[in-house]
Amino acid sequence: MADYPIHEYDVLVVGAGGAGLRAAIEASAGGAKTGVVTKSLLGKAHTVMAEGGMAAAMGNVDDRDNWRVHFADTMRGGQYLNNPRMAEIHAKEAPDRVRELEAWGSMFDRTKDGRILQRNFGGHRYPRLAHVGDRTGLEMIRTLQDHGIHQGIDFHMEVTVLTLLKDGDRCVGAFAYDRERGRFRVFHAKAVVLATGGIGRAFSITSNSWEYSGDGHSLAYHAGASLLDMEFVQFHPTGMIWPPSVKGILVTEGVRGEGGVLRNKDGKRFMFDDIPENYRSQTADTPEEGWRYVTGDKSARRPPELLTRDHVARCIRREVKEGRGSPHGGVFLDIAWIKEKIPNSVEHIKKKLPSMYHQFKQLADIDITQVPMEIGPTTHYMMGGVLVDAESQMSDVPGLFAAGECGAGLHGANRLGGNSLSDLVVFGKRAGEYAAKFAKEKPAGKIDQAQVEEAARRALAPFERGAAGENPFTVQSDLQEMMQDLVGIVRVEDEMQRALDGIAKLKARSAKAGSAGNREYNSGWHTALDLDNLLTVSEIIARSALERKESRGAHFRDDYPGKTVEWGKYNLRVSKAADGSVKVERTPVLPLTDDMKKMIEEQK
Ligand SMILES: Cc1cc2nc3c(=O)[nH]c(=O)nc-3n(C[C@H](O)[C@H](O)[C@H](O)COP(=O)(O)OP(=O)(O)OC[C@H]3O[C@@H](n4cnc5c(N)ncnc54)[C@H](O)[C@@H]3O)c2cc1C
Q: pTM of the full predicted structure?
């Protein structure tokens, strides 16, 4: 083998966001020699950007809340395509994971009597999101990172994994390069945990950071693992839309949780016009009742602005399409109006939503305490991911685990806000625990030199083509525009077919992508290497979306606008066929136990 450094671990964790850090802490606590690879710097993962909070039924603000209600809310939000066992584990274990973060140093906001404060969020029946202002992800990463660095875990920063290495069926490590010097490295591990986050960079308007190029999804797929629910991409209803340089940046749902309302250009609160039947009994009849809800009146029901994200995003799109949008193609989100209700509204907004206040002031010169914001939908979250076992988080490739946004199952067709941060710590912990167990029970597998050499050859190919090759940035941006236009918030068959034709052409262009210069911090080269992941996930999303001939959750088809009973029986599972093509198969949704059925009935 060429002389690449080889790092030996029991457990290798790919990703240092909330899921990766929590997995690494648990693997290390389980006695495994643990290494973490991250393509950015420690403390800079996407989790840092999370704003509104993490959902856990602690009942601190409303004592009617408990894990059974959280389970039912998560299942209803996911339109019953969720893995019910994962939804159960998540609802049961999230409170302990929040308390654990507190014990490790997280400074959550407090109730008057000193307990962890919880706020309202869409689709959650009671105030449930533990939060730190609107900077919850930052606090989570800070806490996990501080805790993690005392556990003897090795961190490899600015190192990107390019390929997973296999010994027969089993995953035994990864091939990677360091971004700073462009040198290759081999990681030899008994178990690998993928915690690489989402895919938002496959679209042009997104709240996601540069790290979200679908690496974990693509690495797992090419290593032979199955993916699930890849048609379900969440378009968050409220992203910034003006000025153009900030298009897509998230406006937290916390704004609506604190009383923010949506209005069209005529000043009308249009969300009252379209309340889905399955949420009618839980939704306020009047603005007055909605306001009482967000200010803590337990007898009131939530305002329609706090319906699930898929629904709110489509209502916004409808207003814009029917000519009632704002000047820059969105609608208005107004928190300033609460001055009619509370005297110290300016201080209140700045205290509850400090990041939003600064974000709009600095990026758009808008004072949200005085005037409404202009917002529109933005690509936000991937419900689909690596198919995993609910208890252990192991994929169908032995030794390969996945947790966090790159895993699938918990959220079904639509994730409730706040359910990701809790997902990261609940299933990150489990992935670390079971990966360590797996590593203890199995002997080390062998690294196959031919796989390493092939991965190195492919990685260096863009340099052979040099500046004469295709520009990787152009290929990337053409893909993003096309996915946004043809496989976005509203989908139809012929557009998705066109997208698949386009992806085939972009694949051919990507195979000719060239990089000039040398290997040291060469962003053109990095982009050329990301293209395969972006194209792989884009094709899988388009094929899955084409296959699901109904509208459910985040997947909306103009040519099949209704939800069908038949499609409610299946998830879509994707794997790589023997000829290298994408295989999409229906797989029956997992059955509910009698107790689960009862929980759902109780909350109807
Ligand atoms: C603006 C914003 C606000 C949000 N607010 C909330 C909220 O309030 N509540 C909530 O529940 N959710 C929220 N979310 C969603 C939530 O933040 C994410 O789903 C979650 O943080 C994902 O965590 P993760 O650990 O799975 O991945 P990440 O935190 O993204 O970590 C991924 C890690 O993988 C690394 N990586 C990726 N590819 C590779 C590779 N090939 N090689 C090596 N390393 C790699 C990255 O460098 C990074 O370290 C928000 C999302 C956004 C964008």
A: 0.94
